[in-house]
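It is worth pausing here to work through a concrete case rather than discussing structure prediction in the abstract. The textbook approach is simple: state the sequence, then state the predicted structure, then interpret. We follow exactly that order.
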Amino acid sequence: MTDPTPDWCSVPNLEWDTPMYRLAVAQLDQTARRMGLDENIWERLRTPQRAHVVSFPFRRDDYERVMTVFGYRVQHLLTMGPTKGGIRYDLDVNLGETTALSMWMTWKCAIVGLPFGGAKGGIRICPRELSQRELQRITRRYTSEIIELIGPDTDIPAPDLGTNEQVMAWIMDTYSQQKGFAVPGVVTGKPIEIGGSHGRLEATGRGVISCVIEALRHRGLDMAGSTIAIQGFGNVARAAATIAQQLGARVVAVSDVAGGVHLPEGLDVYAVGEWLDAQGELKGYPGAEPVTNAELLELPCDVLIPAAIQNQITGENAHRLRCHFVVEGANGPTSLEADAILRQRGVIVVPDILANAGGVTVSYFEWVQGSQQFFWSEEEVNAKLISIMQRAYHAVSEKAEREGVDLRTAALILGIGRVAEAKRRRGVFP
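Step two, the predicted structure:
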């Protein structure tokens, strides 16, 4: 089977041609080739169904400087139901990145069985350099620019890199003001007081650890006593580190954007968190050795969790990793070349589209609770999340064994296959 050949009706990829987009498409192409996927569906899945780019003026607090800001919202797939995906604030946000992330979100939702297509959005800013007042103004203006795209039945944003529940509250309020009544279902990841779900904040990290437990158990190992190195200490990484410590694992390293700390005997995750909250950075944490983000990846450990940013494990450093498992908390942390090296070395990689699906799963719970106005306890949310993550892990693991492939390929076969069947069932209009 040959790759899809562009013709007069194909959309050129130049608009979103970035390294992350090329990685997402390469994963799709590799899997589609193996599956013998119908070429029409294959070609259709390579590009998003909708891609929205906005630019707008933004006034700084001094009311003298006005900047032009660029924002994005991409909807990869509308076949499965409303689209779902986070909004990130970061200097690297661009059309290619949001397109790739929306594509991965499509596979992610299909793998865990959620009635959503993938979406993603963001604004190209550095949130650390902006005041709360500035962040609020920029969020409300961005919301007004994409307001016709989003809604509880069309596209539901959530927090991502650089955003949080407060940003979601601003989006909800802006949307609701335009509609004339409260619409809590327009976003997930909101504060509890305005319709958020218990357990949402820790959901992605909890889902990551659920996959760690299943990966270890599948190979006759136990979480208690295992050593875990985590690149990152943001929302996902911190929740994963805390839960891992509660379950008896030794968290030997964590990091932030400037570097990390390492202690072979195991860090006190709570103390590290208190230090970060007080100091604003991990640098100088007492009783542990400083380590760079690159060095952290190569520390000896049972499980490595890259939970910071994309493109961290590459063809250059994959052969130096000293872990037995890589469980991806971040999106796109491992390149295709690194995947091949790790597979050859016998390192088990639990892919992002499975491992970090806990966030969108509990976002689905929040969406359901909001539509029913019937809310669950944190214990119920966590139990439902763990059950879904376990079921998804076992489905991917069984597919990998049947097909004789690694977990990433198995997860992609599962997700893409479900999407392709949905497209086949719905047909082509008109």
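Step three, interpretation. The first strand starts at residue 50 and ends at 59. Residues 5-11 have pLDDT under 50 and may be disordered.
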